[in-house]
User: Which sequence fits this backbone?
């Protein structure tokens, strides 16, 4: 697959479901890219309680408290509320 611009994803919520979604996207990144035709990359996560984000692999992901910040960001292609 040629180097293509990734589809950027913002997760609004990072409780049990949000962490599971991130894990699934990270674990299945190659298969998702193959099916979609471009890689997906989570770039932002909103979390009400920052301590919830401590056990996850968040390198390259910006953690914010205000979910509206993700919705307003023109650099985020897909917003997922979990």
Assistant:
């Amino acid at each position: 697959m040629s180097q293509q611009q990734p589809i950027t994803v913002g997760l609004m919520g990072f409780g049990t479901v949000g962490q599971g979604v991130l894990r699934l996207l990270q674990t299945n990144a190659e298969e998702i890219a193959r099916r979609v035709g471009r890689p997906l990359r989570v770039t932002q996560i909103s979390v009400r309680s920052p301590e919830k984000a401590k056990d996850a692999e968040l390198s390259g992901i910006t953690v914010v408290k205000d979910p509206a910040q993700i919705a307003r960001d023109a650099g985020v292609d897909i917003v997922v509320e979990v």
Summary: The chain has a mean pLDDT of 91. The helical segments are 16-27, 29-36, 67-72.
